[in-house]
Amino acid sequence: MPELSRAQLVVYGAIAVALLLVGARAIRAEQGVGSAFPVDVGDGSKVRSFSVSGQSSDVVVHVAGAVGRPGVYRLPVGSRVNDAVRRAGGAAAAAELEAVNLAARLADGQQVVVPVRGPGRGGSVAGEGPISLGTATVEQLDTIEGIGPVTAQDIVEFRDRHGGLASVEQLDQISGIGPATMESLRAGLQP
Fold first, then answer.
1. What integer pLDDT is reported at residue 128 of this predicted model?
2. How do the domains of the chain map onto residue ranges?
């Protein structure tokens, strides 16, 4: 085997270093840093969702009540309640959309409940069950024992400022809501 010159050794060394760098970059891409992966969007189809440093750019919400296809759906960050209702097949004929804030931003883990219109009223009847924390209006919150109009407004403003709420426990951050009020909220609200 012929002996390699110094210039040839330098060239082969540079090629080896370049191959190592390309290989390291390929390995990083396989580990998910800035890569795309398939995500089920709730209707049986798959889309590509992009991740930066392993963080998803989607929120997962549960849509229930008077919608075409209740279920758990993945939507892009920044989506609104209206987007979730549409993804769930739209509002049913008996839905009371006036009770839902369709413009509210979705939060990861949020449940969106579209209530059914009450019999003979054209609206929901107070005391029918828990009110959705993610979509409750000031008027609906005011019907809960221990919550007045001012606190109800504070809850809605807090929810809007934080892009939604994932649990009732987050409301203890609002002034005027003590332990007794938290118990009423747990009984009268759902996330």
1. 57
2. 6-31, 58-190
Query: What confidence tier does 49 reach under pLDDT thresholds 50, 70, 90?
Result: very low
| DSSP code at position 169 | G
Higher pLDDT, 85 or 122: 85
- Rounded CA gap, 135 and 156, in Å? 9
Residues in the chain: 191
Q: 133 with 165: CB under 8 angstroms?
A: yes
46 Cβ contact partners less than 8 Å away, ≥ 6 residues apart? 38, 39, 40
**Alpha helix stretches (DSSP H) within the chain:** 6-30, 81-87, 138-142, 149-161, 179-188
Alpha helix stretches (DSSP H) within 31-119:
81-87
Question: What mean pLDDT is reported for the chain?
Answer: 77
In the structure encoding, which two tokens stand for residue 43, read together?
């209707």
| CA 186 – CA 191 distance, rounded (Å) | 9
Q: Is 82 helix (H, G, I), strand (E, B) or coil?
A: helix
Average pLDDT of the residues in 141-150 = 79
CB 187 within 8 A of CB 128: no
4-29: average pLDDT: 88
- Has domain 58-190 been given CATH number 1.10.150.320? yes
